[in-house]
Amino acid sequence: DTALSNVRERVDLAKPELPDDAEDPIITEISFSDFPIMNITLSGDIDLVELKRVATLLKDDVNRVKGILDARIIGGLEREIRVEGDPDLLAYYNVSFDELIDAIRQENQNIPGGSIDVGDQTYLVRVPGEFEEVAEIEDVIVREEDGVAIYVRDVAEVIDGFEDVTSYSRIEMEQAVSVIVTRRAGENIIRITDELRELVDSYEAQYGNSIDFTVLDDVSDEIREQLHELENNILTGLLLVLTVLMIFLGKIRTGLIKFGVVA
């Protein structure tokens, strides 16, 4: 907090020297706990829609791991149903865009169906009404005039496509989908990454024939290496102390007693 305050004071002092058209500087505190701890990348000879679907399932399972703050997906394609009204046809049938939108919205919703008592339990009933097929949208009646129905397909084109791509993920120059994992501050990275790798192994067993799962940027690798070096240093220090004690005291048993190894 002190460092952040000092930086803000120095930046405020420097502001008068900045060009008049420069934007105001932003001072932000960055915590290393906010950085991702693992990147799980999915690739293979299948389309990006299927990769995105599996990545979404993996993301949901990752979020169930204790200590996970967030898991987000980069890359892939998201299905999108677009209804593109034809201005000429709308004008011909005297249908406004708002009327077209309202007709679709009213049909694409679940309807409350009251309640039902089963034994001691009361259950709310809802009638499903959301669209499942593109044809259902095309068959929506926008208006009826003189017994003649005007359907969505009469004034608009329903396109089964994809949302505009806003992020990309690639591995070895091939398109992929990545799941970026962030942990909560203070949580054990070693335990979390072990559980994540077990989760990835389970997905490989299920989808390994068509999808390659690659773990990248696993920060626990560096931590494990540091722990290994620390253990080696402790063991080396222990051996050196024992050696010095035995050399100066002359007797192994005395040295061990002094060190507390032998009672």
Overall description:
This protein is α+β, with helices and mostly antiparallel strands and 263 residues long. The protein is 43% helix and 25% strand. It has helices at residues 2-14, 48-63, 87-92, 97-107, 134-138, 152-155, 189-207, 220-249, 252-259, and strands at 38-43, 68-74, 79-85, 111-118, 121-127, 141-145, 148-151, 156-162, 170-171, 174-175, 177-183, 212-216. The strands form five sheets. Strands 2-11-1-12 form a four-stranded antiparallel β-sheet, with helices on one face. A two-stranded antiparallel sheet has the order 3-8. A two-stranded antiparallel ribbon has the order 4-5. Strand 9 and strand 10 (174-175) form a beta hairpin.
The termini sit apart by 50 Å
Q: What is the global morphology?
A: elongated
Strand/helix succession: HEHEEHHEEHEEHEEEEHEHH
Low-confidence segments, given as residue ranges, are none
Order of strands in the sheet with most strands: 2-11-1-12
- Overall pLDDT confidence: 85
Beta-strand fraction estimate: 25-35%
Number of extended strands:
12
Report the helical percentage. 40-55%
Q: Describe the largest sheet.
A: 4 strands, antiparallel
Rg computed from alpha carbons, rounded to a whole number of angstroms: 32 Å
Helix/strand class: alpha+beta
Helical element count?
9
